[in-house]
Design brief:
Length: 327
């Protein structure tokens, strides 16, 4: 691998720009080319980052040297591009959700295993500083046993997607697979596979627009609420409230605050980085840390532990189980 990863980024939309901004801040990564099916989109984007643009992955791989393909494409394309990049012998970072169904996830994992390349899926919430802090509190037991968590994520329907692909449930999986999976994945990261799961929700022509799920893990409970069908003027929000035997960790309508019985409440400080990309999140935080982790692990050869292809596949499986319960 050497001391630097060279990245070809595929998909010059909202997430592509977020990733390119991160690579420009990572010393051990270099963006070497971009690919977009729309030549005008690719060449503007390539110009912004000083790299050549191509309209197909094949053309890019034939023209530049790279050891990573970063896939920021609409979800329905994740499987085919991952398999193609693996066959070309490239390591892969692919946006979440991993794919539209479990068998596509299996194909992605098998192709990467067969080619001996490393795959990671962009479950950025596991790396988001406040959420990573919550995981740390759960693992350390510093507030005692975790009793329950509420995870919330909602906003207006994302208006930016190219040719409005997000509105087509055949391409995006709808709001529950596309957006709510962040919290499904985080619930599994905290407590493993749920023993029981009950979901309710509402559907429209774009698939499940709002979903309410309760998961049980023995006597621990996680309640999740997610959706993207609020009015256009509604600001995006993600929030959590975790209750422990001896305290609580709350990020809701304010910064993460840790309450411990008998002590003053504490507001931890996190490094802030501004994103030039816009969209509904104005902070590179989780995106920066997930890609830094990926690059560092590729260079060191150490295994991925925070997120693995199998855990990302499991999140797709559980999110689809939730969706299947919504009539
Ligand atoms: N981690 C997060 O918080 C987060 C947030 C938003 C989106 N996402 C995920 O990122 C992925 C991309 O979403 P987005 O919002 O950036 O979409 P987008 O529509 O903004 O960008 C997709 C880009 O891919 C290009 N494209 C489409 N088909 C192509 C093809 N065959 N070959 C090359 N280029 C092609 C489009 O022209 C467009 O520029 C999705 O899987 C989405 O779920 C993740």
């Amino acid at each position: 691998m050497g001391s630097k990863v060279k990245v070809v980024l595929v998909g010059c939309g909202f997430m592509g720009r977020m990733h390119a901004n991160v690579y420009s801040q990572l010393e051990q990564a270099e963006l070497v080319a971009v690919v977009d099916i729309k030549p005008e989109v690719g060449s503007k984007f390539g110009g912004d980052f000083g790299v050549p643009s191509y309209t197909t992955l094949d053309e890019a791989l034939a023209s530049v040297e790279c050891n990573v393909v970063d896939i920021c494409l609409p979800t329905w394309l994740h499987k085919d591009f991952t398999v193609a990049a693996a066959k070309a012998g490239k390591n892969i970072f692919c946006e979440k959700p991993m794919a539209l169904n479990v068998s596509e996830c299996d194909e992605m994992i098998a192709a990467c295993d067969a080619a001996g390349v490393r795959l990671s899926i962009g479950h950025c919430i596991r790396f988001w500083p406040e959420y990573a802090k919550l995981k740390e509190i759960v693992v350390s037991g510093s507030l005692g046993k975790l009793l329950s968590v509420n995870l919330t994520r909602y906003g207006a329907f994302p208006s930016w997607s190219s040719d409005n692909w997000l509105a087509d449930p055949e391409k995006s999986g709808g709001g529950a697979l596309d957006m709510h999976i962040h919290d499904t994945d985080f619930a599994l990261y905290l407590l493993g596979t749920p023993q029981k799961l009950v979901s309710f929700g509402t559907r429209d022509q774009r698939g499940v627009g709002q979903i309410f799920t309760t998961m049980t893990f023995g006597d621990q409970i996680i309640h999740l609420e997610g959706g993207w069908n609020l009015p256009r003027t509604t600001p995006f929000k993600h929030a959590f409230r975790a209750i422990f035997e001896r305290g609580a960790a709350i990020m809701d309508a304010g910064p993460l605050t840790i309450h411990e019985d008998g002590k003053e409440a504490v507001v931890p400080e996190f490094e802030k980085m501004e994103a030039a990309g816009g969209g509904n999140i104005s902070d590179l935080g989780g995106y920066f840390f997930e890609l830094k982790y990926y690059v560092d692990k590729l260079i060191s050869g150490e295994p991925f532990e925070v997120t693995t292809p199998d855990s990302s596949k499991e999140s797709v499986r559980v999110a689809l189980e939730e969706i299947s319960q919504v009539p």
